[in-house]
Amino acid sequence: MVIVSKFWTNLFSFGRANAITIYPFIFLKSTSFKCNENLILHERIHLRQALELGILFFYVWYLIEFVFRFIQLKDFDRAYLRISFEREAYDKEGEPDYLNRRTLWSFWRYL
Question: Whole-angstrom Cα distance, residue 12 to residue 15?
Fold first, then answer.
């Protein structure tokens, strides 16, 4: 379910993201992003990742990987972009049929 909420998007992304997925919702910063098919697919990829790992474990892993990358790179944006879940989502967000052919734990190859 897609919800437009600048408040929740800013809260969970420190104001840095246009969209964020908090299972089972996709929060968008603005109504204008509803038309952005790549952005919506990116967030739907995160929904699939969360389902296959278990929702709580997905968010724990995401946070741990971010902290590890942040310590390693000492840069918020670079750390975020190196998270395996984000790497898969950014790599495949332009492929509309990706979720139909995606295999289990596809993010693993981005570690």
Answer: 8
Query: Residue ranges per domain, the chain?
Result: 2-110
Residue by residue, DSSP assigns 14-80 as TT--SEEEETTEEEESSGGGGG-HHHHHHHHHHHHHHHHH-HHHHHHHHHHHHHHHHHHH--HHHHH
Q: Is 101 strand, coil or helix?
A: helix
Cα gap 109→76, rounded to integer Å: 22
**CB under 8 A, 24+ apart: contacts of 13-16:** 16/76, 16/77, 16/80
Token code pair at residue 57: 């474990």
78 C-beta neighbours (distance < 10 Å), count? 12
Q: What is the pLDDT of residues 47-76, one digit of tens each?
A: 999 999 999 999 999 999 999 999 999 999
d(CA 51, CA 70): 25
pTM summary value: 0.95
